[in-house]
Amino acid sequence: MDISRTTLLRWAEALGGSARTGLGFTKSLYEIERFEEILKIASEIRSCAQISGLGIDPESSGDEIFDHWLQSVGDGIPGYVTPKSAIATIVGNEKGEILLIQRSDSGIWLYPTGWADVGYSPSEVATKEVKEETGIDIEVVRVLAIIDGMRRGYTAVPLYSTMFYCRSIGGELKAHPLECRDVGWFSRNNLPSPMVRPESWIPMAFRAIDGIIDETHFDTVRTPFWREE
């Protein structure tokens, strides 16, 4: 069967993460050799996927990816490899519009989002990121979704994203000079383009903005876990 790049990426990151975690905990020379061999195989798979990721050029060779991963190995608990955490925000205003930013790196229009910063709670990160990226003050209302970004093909790194629904309570639109090309309020019938898979989140976003309370969305359990979707 044909194997997608997204699937290759997922296999590579899973193998690479397990190998680096093993290297972070083991003291056995035999196990170190085995984990490094697995890491080497994972790096070759990652190179075949040729998808850009955190600190990894999409054209990197397997040897370059292997060296990058090996240098990131920690000792014990700090070396346990887990998905990164990001905070996303769906912000609505009194007109029923959604707040969107145009990312400076890709030109893609998307909801405000950013890495979860150490020292802040998730809702504090949401409040801070929206203010920094757009100039808008918000009230965090509830969690809309918790999603696996790599499984959905949104990201090229293992990433869990917690998405909040928030209300605008003030501020003035002002795009962050480094992170955003533009920022604005948009109605459901006047959305900008290009956007990242709007069909997967726009309906949920406007249901929240309309005051409809759904259960928190999350990715369903696959059977088996590693099957192609």
Automatic annotation (TrEMBL):
PROSITE patterns: NUDIX (PS51462). It holds the Pfam family Nudix_N. Its EC number is 3.6.1.-. InterPro entries: NUDIX_hydrolase-like_dom_sf, NUDIX_hydrolase_dom, UDP-X_N. The keyword Nucleotidyltransferase does not apply. It comes from the Bacteria. The keyword Transmembrane helix does not apply. Residues 82-208 form the Nudix hydrolase domain. Keywords: Hydrolase. GO terms for molecular function: hydrolase activity. Belongs to the Nudix hydrolase family. This is Putative mutator protein MutT4.
